[in-house]
Amino acid sequence: MVRLSTAVAIVASSTTVFGYAPSRLYMTHNSGNNVDTRAVPLPTASTSSSSSRRGFVTQSVAFVLGTTTSSLIATTNNSNNIINGVDMGGTANAVGPIKINILNPTYTAAPCPPSKPIPGEKAMKGMRGLCVQVTAELEELPPKELEKVGVYGYVNDAETSESVLANNPDSGTDAGQFGMIESVGIKDKKVEFEFIAAVPMEKDVTSYENGIGPLEFKSLRIISFPGGQQFGAINPCEMNEFSEECEVWEQENGPYSKGEFIMKSNPRTKGR
Q: In what order do the strands lie in the sheet with 24-31?
């Protein structure tokens, strides 16, 4: 093996780089257990032009600069991307909403108590409310702890294809939020949530073991917004705080106060 050893001194000042080349080169030759090092004189003015010397210095400077840069990059990676106390970045942190698909939902239903009436248009059509408890799997684990997680998607009666969601009575194009989960941990593979299903009064649900009959879930997913901003659980006071249903709810749950959702109440109009 033949190895050329050189020494190059680098002095950086603003945008100027100065190079220095030694007066001698050393050639090392390894042969078995013997190591032979010989000094090789640099070309003199009589055997080499000034342009050759400039070329040698330029190549030497470029080599050292490249080696120094590679070493700096490796050091940066090993120190968690921090140089002189300044974070130079690394793996991008998600700043937008986190979305995870929900798979294989199983559910049971029971009549809702008076404190959970059907909200929205379905209540005006003589529907009755069934409180549906759902257990499902997450397609992937959350990247971090999530709070106030919204449940989105479509839920239809599998026999009639009619929507059972009070806030999406016609299965419109907007798969809105219909449930909420208080928190989801980074190791949680399953989630549980509740929603109110609106079914016709004339439908006999006593023959169904699950208490409601077959349901069809579509585009089911959880969405967590930064800061846990969600619309919150629906109660009768959210629909009409002056209704009799709200009075019953307050008797069981205490005085009603408006929650801070994505669209916060206007303090000037007191939420109206």
A: 2-5, 24-31, 34-41
Judge whether 217 and 104 are in contact, CB under 8 Å.
no
Q: What are phi and psi of 123, to 5 degrees?
A: -65, -25
Q: Pairing state of beta strands 82-83 and 177-184?
A: unpaired
112 with 143, same domain: the answer is yes
Question: In this structure, what are the phi and psi dihedrals at residue 261, rounded to the nearest 5 degrees?
Answer: -100, -170
Number of domains present in the structure of the chain: 2
| pTM tops 0.85, yes or no | no
Dump pLDDT digits (tens) for 126-141.
788 899 999 999 999 9
- The range of the structural domain enclosing residue 225 comes to 98-253
DSSP labels, 77-98: HHTTTEETTEE---SPPP-S-E
Contact between residue 106 and residue 179 where contact means Cβ atoms under 8 Å apart? no
